[in-house]
Amino acid sequence: MARVVVDVMPKPEILDPQGQAVARALPRLGFDGVSDVRQGKHFELEVDDSVDDETLARIAEGFLSNPVVEDFVVRRVQA
């Protein structure tokens, strides 16, 4: 078994209202010095060792993300 992490983020040119809301709230909560926040999604998958990188990319692009407005990164991590 292998652990795979897929991080999905809005593309840089896409407005991120959730990230903006967090960025505006931080100074009110006493956290200064944060100039920008982008909010995304984090997935952890347990897969058989036989699942190849192409299959993982198809899962990320076709199911876990919306490739029109989001970018993704797939990485295998140590279990």
Number of domains: 1
**H and E order:** EHEHE
Strand order of the largest sheet: 2-1-3
Number of strands: 3
Structural class: alpha+beta
What's the total helix number?
A: 2
What is the CA-CA span between the terminal residues? 8 Å
Based on CA atoms alone, the radius of gyration comes out at 16 Å
| Fraction in helix | 25-40%
Low-confidence stretches: none
Shape estimate: elongated
The CATH topology annotation reads as Mth169, Chain: A
Mean of all residue-level pLDDT scores: 96
The biggest beta sheet, please? 3 strands, antiparallel
CATH architecture label: 2-Layer Sandwich
CATH superfamily: Phosphoribosylformylglycinamidine synthase subunit PurS
What proportion strand? 25-35%
Question: Which CATH C-level class is it?
Answer: Alpha Beta
Task: Provide keyphrases for this structure.
single chain; 79 residues; alpha+beta; Mth169, Chain: A; three-stranded antiparallel β-sheet; 2 helices; 3 strands; 30% strand
What can you see in these coordinates?
The longest helix is centred in the first third of the chain and has 12 residues, at 17-28. By secondary structure, the chain is of the alpha+beta class. The protein has one domain: 2-Layer Sandwich (Mth169, Chain: A). It has two helices and three strands; from the N terminus they run E-H-E-H-E. It has a three-stranded antiparallel β-sheet with strand order 2-1-3, covered by helices on one side.
Produce a short descriptive summary:
This protein is an alpha+beta fold.
